[in-house]
Design goal:
Helix content is 43%, strand content 17%. The strands form three sheets. A seven-stranded mixed β-sheet has the order 4-10-9-8-7-5-6, with helices on both faces. Strands 1-2-3-12 form a four-stranded mixed β-sheet. The radius of gyration is 21 Å and the shape is globular. The N and C termini lie far apart (48 Å). With 386 residues, the protein is of the alpha/beta class.
Length: 386
């Protein structure tokens, strides 16, 4: 039964968000490559994570349809009951062979993969040290663990070493490969070196790097020539699908199968989806032209703001944020861009720190040079007029 105190608290906190321009809204949308249709109006889409434009690739769609026809729509159970289909086993082996790990494990979401990994593998007397800008799923996983969980200043290697100067049974350094809100990359080689010096494990979340960087799109770790002990990546970005996986030594994966509550008690990934993911790996491995085209668009975008007062962050990834400061300003800029046919996202606290609200622009292989020119010209006009 709802009590007046309960309802009052919810209403008060919701109103507080609205007053501070932090209230979030959902929009019923239909993404279609470089465009998105919302409430009957079509915009150029600069807010999605379909970096390689594969979400509507005909071969991926065919693989999904064939999976539905031959394997069914759902797995019908958790992996340890009856939900682990042959295509799941095939996909896990394919991922392990592609990325050079002993074993992999599929999850339905990246959030569950990250949070369950840390809380399952590390406990009392262990130490988890995370980059301050890590994704909420990693932070939550550390907080839910019985281990001591602390953070180091973003990409600050001296501070990382200082934070590791604590006694612990086991230590692990956790970082993203490409940071989802800033778009910059981790100092993977330095982190790997520090991990070796401190006898610590190294875990990398490469959700925004896999497919985009490295040989055959293997990710930021491959581009840096430093393989982490544990790799997590999702299929919801460059793969154009959804779900996630963890790659590690076989004993780590076996342990997660036995003790990860998120894995044990969740319905397994749809076999049709697993079939589509398998096809996407084949495409990504040969997609150098897509990666090259994406880098050309990133360079074009960044070059457009040279010698301007518009503040770009140091990013060579598909994520190109423009810092505007207040949440009010971020919403106002995004609104003016929408009025002129551009859809992108205003990112505000608590996703980012106070006074660092931003326009989060994401670029994809689907965007044309003309699209980038239109976007950058419009941003300059909106900023100059405000």
């Amino acid at each position: 039964m709802y009590t007046s105190n309960f309802s009052h608290r919810l209403s008060s906190e919701l109103q507080n968000r609205k007053t501070r321009s932090l209230y979030r809204q959902r929009y019923s949308s239909i993404p279609n490559g470089r465009t998105i249709t919302i409430e009957g109006k079509t915009y150029l889409n600069f807010s999605g994570n379909d970096y390689l434009g594969l979400s509507r690739h005909p071969d991926v769609q065919d693989a999904y349809s064939h999976g539905v026809d031959s394997l069914g729509c759902g797995s019908t159970g958790s992996a340890l009951i009856n939900g682990y289909h042959p295509i799941h086993d095939t996909l896990e082996n394919k991922l392990a062979e592609w990325l050079g790990f002993e074993s992999t494990l599929l999850f339905s979401t990246g959030f569950s993969a990250n949070s369950s990994l840390l809380k399952t593998l590390f406990g009392k007397d262990d130490l988890i040290v995370q980059d301050k800008l890590n994704h909420a799923s990693l932070i939550d996983g550390g907080l839910m663990s019985d281990a001591r969980s602390i953070r180091f200043n973003h990409n600050d290697m001296s501070h990382l070493q200082l934070r590791l100067n604590n006694s612990a049974r086991n230590k692990i350094i956790v970082s993203e490969g490409v940071f989802s809100m800033d778009g910059d990359q981790a100092h993977i080689q330095q982190i790997n070196q520090i991990a070796e010096q401190e006898n610590a494990l190294f875990m990398l979340d490469d959700a925004h790097g896999i497919g985009v960087f490295g040989k055959e799109g293997q990710g930021t770790w491959q581009a840096s020539q430093c393989k982490p002990d544990i790799l997590m990546a999702t299929f919801g970005k460059a793969f154009g699908l959804s779900g996630a996986f963890i790659a590690a030594k076989r004993e780590v994966i076996d342990y997660l199968v036995q003790f990860s509550r998120s894995y044990v008690y969740s319905t397994a990934m749809s076999p049709a989806q697993a079939n589509a993911i398998s096809k996407t790996i084949d495409i990504i491995k040969k997609a150098d032209w897509r990666r090259d085209k994406l880098q050309q668009s990133i360079a074009q975008f960044r070059n457009a703001f040279k010698d301007t007062n518009i503040q770009l962050l140091d990013s060579d990834s598909a994520i190109q944020p423009i810092i505007v400061g207040s949440a009010d300003h971020a919403l106002a800029y995004a609104k003016k861009l929408r009025e002129n046919g551009i859809w992108l996202t205003a990112i505000r606290p608590p996703t980012v720190a106070e006074n660092s609200s931003r326009l989060r622009i994401t670029l994809t292989t689907e965007h044309t040079a003309e699209d980038i020119t239109f976007l950058t010209s419009l941003i300059k006009k909106v900023f100059n007029d405000t």
